[in-house]
């Protein structure tokens, strides 16, 4: 098993992390990624500190990227009622442009083979995967990791359940220059959505919001929507008025689905958003992507062993550990999003946590993990 190449489909945060881990342990890895590096991605760009011990173990020096260090959360309802709290574990702000590119370079220096191509299909037969790409390449391996993000042509190819339903969510993100504290992440609601703001490297501010298609489609443009809906929250109004856009135009993505997914499908071990996407208001998707890459890599490095003898054992174990670590976090994220996106409930929520601030800290802890333990 160990002298075969492991194929990872998708070179985002999860795929690159798994590639770095597996190659560090001497395994041969091919990562197939459809996009060039570096590239901007729609993301809140706030990462929970729970990943720090693991990133250090992978020999990734995030401080070299000059992130901002964040330990405060500011949260407001649609009407602008505001609460401030400390983040129990804290996190850091770094753009995906810098972070993914840094991981890409590390994966290359660890001798991962990174192929720029689009995977068109994955077939599992007689204990082997056959992967076909748009450039006509045919690759095979007996371990494939699915790290192709929240929505991909592979989901259609595998006929995954979540892809059958339309998702009502779309997201917008851009970088700005302006005045915003380095140590703060802002989470501000507006009618039909919410907006996450934090500083990243080089004094830039990342503003990213998620909204329902139904609210968005009534407006002619992003700037109309921002003026007439997003800025109705006075805190968002102030942030936008005080900031200057440095992208040519904001990036947008549609069909963002938070529906449950399976962590193993067609024998592919799914990591990151491919296994499940948590609501961005939890600020924990990237940490989960990195954590799931760690779990899958540790199992593969150790496979086969006395406890995990067969592929079925490997799949079962991965599914179990994944569920243990992430199932309740995803559920808590979905529940929280429902509450906060309802004008009356979010106002009530704010009133309750203003009187009992420990409840907010408890909720934040429910959607986050603990610092990742390193075993070897
Ligand atoms: C609006 C929004 C805001 C967010 N904000 C935050 C935040 O502040 N903090 C946080 O922790 N998380 C946040 N998240 C979540 C976070 O962005 C994701 O959890 C994280 O990007 C997951 O990484 P990934 O590697 O699974 O997916 P990705 O980073 O999306 O990587 C998947 C890769 O697969 C490639 N790919 C897809 N299909 C193919 C194919 N067929 N062939 C080859 N390559 C393919 C893609 O090009 C892509 O590079 C946010 C998410 C959204 C939607």
What features would you describe in this structure?
- The chain has 376 residues and is α/β, with parallel strands linked by helices.
- The mean pLDDT is 94.
- Strands 3, 4, 5, 11, 12, 13, 14, 15 and 16 form a nine-stranded mixed sheet that branches. It has a six-stranded mixed sheet with strand order 6-2-1-10-18-17.
- A hairpin with a 5-residue loop joins β4 and β5 (82-93).
- The two termini are 21 Å apart.
- The longest helix has 30 residues, at 311-340.
- Helix content is 34%, strand content 27%.
- α1 (13-24) runs parallel beside α3 (96-109) and α10 (343-355) crosses α11 (357-366).
- The protein is built from eleven helices and 18 strands.
- The site of flavin-adenine dinucleotide has 41 residues, from α1, β2, β3, α4 and β14.
């Amino acid at each position: 098993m160990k002298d075969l190449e492991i194929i990872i489909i998708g070179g985002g945060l999860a795929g690159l992390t798994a590639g770095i881990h597996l190659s560090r342990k001497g395994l041969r890895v091919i990562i197939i990624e459809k996009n060039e590096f570096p590239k901007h991605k729609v993301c809140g760009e706030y990462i929970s500190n729970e990943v720090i011990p693991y990133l250090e173990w992978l020999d990734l020096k995030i401080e070299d990227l000059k992130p901002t260090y964040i330990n405060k959360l500011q949260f407001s309802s649609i009407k602008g009622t505001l609460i401030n709290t400390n983040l129990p574990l804290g996190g850091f702000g770094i753009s995906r442009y810098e972070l993914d590119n840094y991981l890409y370079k590390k994966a290359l220096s660890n001798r991962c083979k990174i192929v720029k191509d689009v995977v068109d299909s994955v077939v599992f037969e007689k204990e082997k995967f056959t992967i076909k790409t748009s450039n006509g390449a045919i690759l095979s391996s007996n371990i494939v990791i699915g790290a192709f993000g929240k929505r991909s042509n592979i989901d259609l190819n595998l006929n995954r359940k979540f892809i059958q339903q339309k998702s009502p969510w779309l997201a917008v993100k851009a970088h700005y220059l302006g005045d915003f504290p380095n140590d703060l992440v802002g989470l501000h609601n507006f009618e039909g959505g919410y907006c996450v703001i934090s500083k990243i490297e080089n004094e830039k501010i990342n503003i990213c919001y998620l909204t329902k298609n139904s609210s968005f489609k009534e407006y002619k443009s992003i700037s109309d929507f921002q003026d007439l809906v997003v800025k109705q929250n006075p805190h968002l109004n102030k942030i936008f008025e005080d900031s200057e856009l440095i992208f040519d135009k904001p990036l947008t993505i549609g069909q963002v689905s938070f529906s449950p997914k399976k962590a193993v499908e067609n024998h592919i071990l799914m990591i990151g958003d491919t296994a499940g996407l948590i609501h961005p208001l939890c600020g924990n998707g990237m940490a989960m992507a990195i954590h799931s890459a760690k779990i899958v890599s540790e199992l593969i490095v150790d496979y086969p062993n006395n406890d995990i003898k067969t592929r079925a054992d490997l799949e079962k174990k991965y599914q179990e550990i994944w569920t243990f670590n992430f199932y309740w976090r995803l559920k808590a994220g979905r529940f929280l999003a429902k509450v906060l996106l309802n004008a009356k409930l979010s106002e009530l929520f704010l009133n309750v946590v203003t009187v009992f601030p420990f409840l907010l800290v408890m909720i934040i802890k429910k959607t986050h993990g603990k610092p990742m333990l390193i075993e070897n």
